[in-house]
Amino acid sequence: MQKENTIINPCQPYVELGVDDVSRLDMPKLGISHFYEFFLGNKLLHELKAVPDGSIDLLFNIGKSRVTTFISGTVFGVKKWELGDVGLCFGVRFQPGQGILPRELSMDMLVNDDLEIDGNLFGKNLTERIAMATDIKSRSMIFMEAYRDFVYGRPDLSDKEMINEYLVNRITRANGHISINELQEETNYSACYLRRVFKNYNSISPKQFARYIRFQTLLDKLNTNNTRYDELALDCGYFDEAHMMKEFKSYAGLTLEQYRKMQRRI
Predict the structure, then answer these.
(1) Does the model's pTM come out above 0.85?
(2) Is residue 97 part of a domain?
């Protein structure tokens, strides 16, 4: 059973800064970070982008005649995000490395991709009930009820699943600033075995996951303070400012200064 701890709130800045009237509801339970909702107009169709966050997103695109459901894993770098047709988008964002999938899905299918699925895989008549709800709070409660039944119906964690859970939580709590050698010492398992277990469940390496967490930590700090870049780099675990700048552009698709200008325009 997954712990209900909020460690990090994964951010998708192109949604949060690029869409008008985004609603958000934090609900840190069962590995979920938060719910979000916005209307997708013609001008936004296929124009939003995703950045690495180590997380799963489940998106219900609620149109007039049908509900289309997409599920996405973390991207490797800035990438176009499949949002479906024009309509209301209701999303579920899980904590990094968290989220239990139906047996029909695997992380190999989701990483760096968007997959259209039957939303009812997560609960009976779930898409219809979500579409009938009138606001984000109601939709969130409907999903939580269905997902809680889904989660509690799963068997207890295996030894390997407990190792993976420890690695995910440890890397996240360290804000990505921890080495495989340190994890090896803490667990008494070889680095090779830890990498294999982690990749089996997450389809990325512990090192990749740590980098995404470090990047998300940087995004959070950029949203909350105006610390100098050299201080930010040290605080987030980068070697230096140049290292931080290079990785940020690789993951966000723009420079730090361009990102801050985008923030100031909102």
Answers:
(1) yes
(2) yes
